[in-house]
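User: Um, any thoughts?
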Amino acid sequence: MPPSNAKAAGWMAGWLAAMLVLLVAGREIARELSVFQLMEMRSVIGFFLLFPLVLMNGGLASVKTSRPWMHIGRNVIHYGAQYGWFLALTLIPLAQVVAIEFTMPIWTALLAMSFLGERLNVWNILAIILGLVGVFIIVHPGAAPVNSGQLIMVVAAIGFGVSVVMVKSLTRTDSVTTIIFWMLVIQSAIGLIPALSNWHWPSAHLWPWIVVIAFCGTYSHFCFAQAMRYADTSVVVPMDFLRVPLSATVGWLVYSEQLDTATVLGAALILSGNLLNLKRSAPARAAAT
C-alpha cells in the first residue's frame, strides 16, 4: 500500500472524533458501572458491531492469522494498560494522568526505531518535542512527590507504546479487520471473569451510552490501525497530541469547563508540531519510495 500522510491524517481524524465521544460517554457510564464491566461490555457489543464487516470481507476465513501469539501478546498488554489508566484516575489528579499518558509517543518512537527499523528525522523529533511541551503547558502538572498512581501511569504509557508498535507490526501481515476482530475476542476472554465478579445490570438510560462506547471503542481502533498502514508510527502518533486540546474544547462546550490561555498556547504548539511533521515527512517518504 503506497504511503500517504494525507490518508493517515484522515483516518486519525476518525480516531480523534471517536475518542472525544468516548470521553463524554465514559464519564456518564463511570458513575454506575465498574471498569471491568465497562471494558467487557464494550468488547462483547463491539464484536457484534464489527461482525457485519467481517462477513463483508469474506467471513471468518478472512480473519485467519499466522501470528496468533502476537495478537495475544498485544492485547494482554493493551488490556493491562487500559486498566492501569483507569486505576491511575483514582489515585492521582487528571492533569497528571494526561501528562504522563502523553509520554507514550516517546516510548513508541524508541520502540519503533529498535524493533521496526523506522528512522527518526529532525521533523519527527521536533513534532514530539513540541507536542510534549504543548501538553505540559495545557495540563501544567504540579510538583507533588512521585506516588504509586504516577508509577502505574508510567507503566501504562509504556504499555500503550508497546501496543502501538505491535499494531504497526501486525499491519504488515494482517488486515485491519483481522487486528480488531482478535482484539475484541481476546480482550473479551481476558475480562470475562473480572467483569462477572463485579456485574450488575445497567440502568435503562445507560444503554445508549454503552452502545456508543462499544461502537467508538471498536471503530476508533479500526481508524488508528488504518492510519498505521499509510504512515510510520513517528508520523501517526504525534497526531494524537491533538486529543488534549480537543478534549479541553469538549469539556468547555459540554461541561462548561474553562478554556484558558494555557490551553490555547499548548494547542498551537501541538498543531504546529503536527503540521511540520506532516509537511516535512512527505518529501522524505516520496524520495524513499
